[in-house]
Specification:
The chain has helices spanning 2-23, 43-46, 160-171, and strands at 26-40, 58-70, 74-75, 78-89, 100-103, 111-112, 116-121, 126-132, 143-147, 153-156, 174-179, 184-186, 191-193, 197-211. By secondary structure, it is of the alpha+beta class. Strands 1, 2, 4, 6, 12, 13 and 14 form a seven-stranded antiparallel beta sheet that branches. A four-stranded antiparallel beta sheet has the order 3-7-8-11. The protein has a three-stranded antiparallel beta sheet with strand order 5-9-10, with no helix packed on it.
Amino acid sequence: MKKLAGLLTALALCLAMAAPALAESRCLRVQLDGTIKLRPKNPAATQGQPGNAMMSCQTNGKFHIELIFPEKGGQAVSQKNWVVISGFDCPPDQPGSRCRQEAHADAFYPRPFTLQASVEPEGAFSYVLEFRLAQLPPASPITITIQCEGAPADVSDYGSNYRQLMLPWHMNKMVLTSVLNKSRHKHPPVMDLPPFLLADVEWDELVTLVPCENFKY
């Protein structure tokens, strides 16, 4: 009985010592905060052609990506990402036209999205991160008011603007090398988004170790 009591006491002590260690287990958090600028490849070709003004619009966006991984690498176990239109500017439909196009206020609310992402250690303090948008999110249409000589008219973009903001992640697998606790600014070359868009994307990037218990899986 004394031996059994001693074993139980030792086991209890081991569990008590292990509990804080489990509570303090760490995860890797990757944060990207940046901007996306969408520009037509040939804006002059779309001007002067009725109905083509929306194709030559300049859309600016902001995005936030937060990915949580096991400390030793692997697939993302939690994430919180969003993109939002921060600017929407459309040229006149025709040369000399007084038409204006303005997006409604709800166009400037953040939209969430989900990435396929994994990370692997590369040395003691650096990591290789890979992610892409495997599937475009459901269409999120915005309403645009067109004001010309007559009464204003509301039209839908049928979700094209937010889907276009997602194309850099959807058409390209991003592979990034990041250093722990070191903020970096990344500005890759302008991306070609067929058939008629270019995307200029840049961001600030930070990788840190955080308590896993702060995140729900």
